[in-house]
Amino acid sequence: MGGTYVKWFMRRQSYPSDISDAQWRLIEPHLPVYPGGRPRTTDLRDVVDAILYILRTGCQWRYLPKDFPPKSTVWRYFDEWRHNGTLELIHDQLRRKVRAAEKPYAPRTTASVDSQSVDATSGGQRRGRDNARNVDGRKRHMVVDSMGLLLAVLVTAAHVDDAHAATELFARLEGQPVSQVKRMYADSKYHNFVLYEWVDKNAGWNLEIVRRPRDATGWVTLPVRWTVERTFAWLGKCRRLSKDREKSVRSSEAFVRLAMIQLMLNRLEPKGTDADFCYRQVA
User: Would the pTM of this model clear 0.85, i.e. be above it?
Assistant: First the structure.
């Protein structure tokens, strides 16, 4: 993974999940390059395209098309980036740009929290059963801002109570742009006096429970909290996230961030024409 790059092959096939030139310019400066060592023969843009291909198609690592770098190489970079904070850095930088473009000078004053239970397809850590939702697998706990942009994510076993997981989830807001948040909206699953006490001692905002109307039946759109439900719907566009297919929760959380990274790239630099999907040609 040295700093010098020597290209030894050229991809000829392009995919809709490939990033455009403009999108690549947004993330390239944040990818770590280490000086010294042997010249790097892998194009990092090919690695990013391969990871996004897995995210959108849901294919297994060993089924990566042959025109991408070898699966072992792609996995090595993914593993490094999920451990060293690269994905978090890219995500947070893009979120800042999206927020500045769509809501300039408007600080975050509200946020929403919720969870999503999904079936798991393989073994691994932290698995359980959510009887209320008839799900065997894991649960994604997320905090989003008023635009639905991700502020924190935590993956647990599906049987873990939302209010119990909330303290660990809220602790992950440290270092995030929530200094002006005054209200955190949640549903009745977070009505828990131990959680209220934790929020009073550790948070600078109030936890507000948005309850269902008493006469409501079936699924109901709750005021304000529809933003986090919409974020879960955005994740559903990625087949890798239709179920939890990862052995570790770190990978599960990484793919959630990657889904938001791709969404924000498409907001900042939309791929408006077929030409945007074409792989750049090297003379």
Answer: yes
